[in-house]
């Protein structure tokens, strides 16, 4: 095998990494790559041998204090050779002194713990069908973006405006619905079409019942009924509502942090994406 080299991925290669994720069964959104890259253009990395990319990882710096690790993938033909681990150590340097989060499969918890990551929560992927309904909430407008960013920061403890500017953008495969109380936006949910169904996140709401309404309306805005939500255990009441509606768990991840974890206000009912937190 040729020497392994590491480098930063280009925007087009971020899209290729998400194609790999689709092949792994992760079911990314059709237009996730531009939002991922906008979050931190320098935060996506490849390992190459003989000029061929064989492994990928992201360490996205959301703000001055917090980063998030994801998209940790090695080509099946090159696993078990230390290539992924070498890329892991290379990419972690990008975070500097920031606290780093990740959503890892439980089988890898011990390995992540050995690298200093501590379990803080678990996230359950819940999949089910919403009954078709007429949209009754308004779509987000460009002039809402500042308010949505404030809600997101309060909910997540992260300042990630560059990511949200693209993630919340309106397109044929992506819709964000907002809840208004008078002139004030008090909640929102984003649905994005995937290879299978639509994923809904973030869902930011003052209570579980409102979160369920937002999720249903986000799916309706895309004219989708099959919905997938990643719900933290710390929002078990929202997960219970979904389960009563027939949603079932397909897998769980361990939310772990090395260094300080961001502190939200309890209104994040479903995460935006397991790859970026």
UniProtKB/TrEMBL annotation:
The organism encoding this protein is Ponticoccus alexandrii
Q: What is this protein called?
A: GNAT family N-acetyltransferase
For this protein, the record's SUPFAM superfamilies field holds: Acyl-CoA N-acyltransferases (Nat) (SSF55729)
Report the CDD domains cross-referenced here: NAT_SF
| Signal peptide (residue range) | none
Residue ranges annotated for the N-acetyltransferase domain, each copy included: 4-144
InterPro entries, A to Z:
Acyl/Acetyltrans_Enzymes (IPR052729), Acyl_CoA_acyltransferase (IPR016181), GNAT_dom (IPR000182), YitH/HolE_GNAT (IPR041496)
Name the Pfam families on file.
Acetyltransf_1 (PF00583), Acetyltransf_18 (PF18014)
Which Gene3D superfamilies does the record match to this protein? 3.40.630.30, 3.40.630.90
């Amino acid at each position: 095998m040729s020497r392994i080299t590491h480098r930063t991925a280009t925007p087009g290669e971020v899209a290729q990494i998400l194609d790999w994720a689709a092949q792994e069964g992760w079911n990314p959104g059709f237009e996730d790559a531009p939002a991922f890259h906008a979050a931190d253009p320098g935060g996506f990395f490849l390992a190459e041998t003989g000029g061929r990319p064989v492994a990928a990882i992201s360490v996205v710096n959301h703000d001055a204090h917090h980063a998030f690790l994801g998209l940790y993938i090695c080509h099946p033909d090159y696993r078990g050779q230390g290539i992924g681990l070498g890329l892991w150590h290379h990419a972690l340097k990008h975070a500097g002194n920031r606290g780093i989060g990740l959503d890892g499969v439980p089988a890898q918890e011990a390995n992540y713990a050995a690298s200093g990551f501590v379990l803080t929560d678990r996230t359950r992927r819940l999949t089910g069908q919403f009954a078709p309904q007429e949209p009754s909430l308004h779509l987000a407008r460009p002039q809402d973006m500042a308010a949505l960013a404030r809600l997101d920061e309060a909910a997540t403890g992260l300042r990630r405006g560059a990511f949200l500017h693209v993630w919340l953008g309106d397109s044929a495969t992506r819709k964000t619905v907002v809840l208004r109380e008078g002139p004030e936006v008090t909640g929102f949910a984003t649905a994005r079409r995937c290879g299978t169904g639509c994923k809904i996140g973030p869902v930011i709401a003052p209570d579980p019942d409102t979160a369920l309404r937002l999720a249903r309306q986000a799916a309706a805005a895309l004219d989708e009924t099959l919905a997938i939500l990643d719900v933290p255990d710390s929002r078990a009441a929202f997960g219970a509502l979904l389960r009563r509606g027939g949603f079932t768990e397909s897998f769980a991840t361990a939310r772990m942090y090395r260094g300080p974890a961001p502190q939200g206000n309890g209104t994040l009912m479903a995460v935006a994406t397991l790859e970026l937190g």
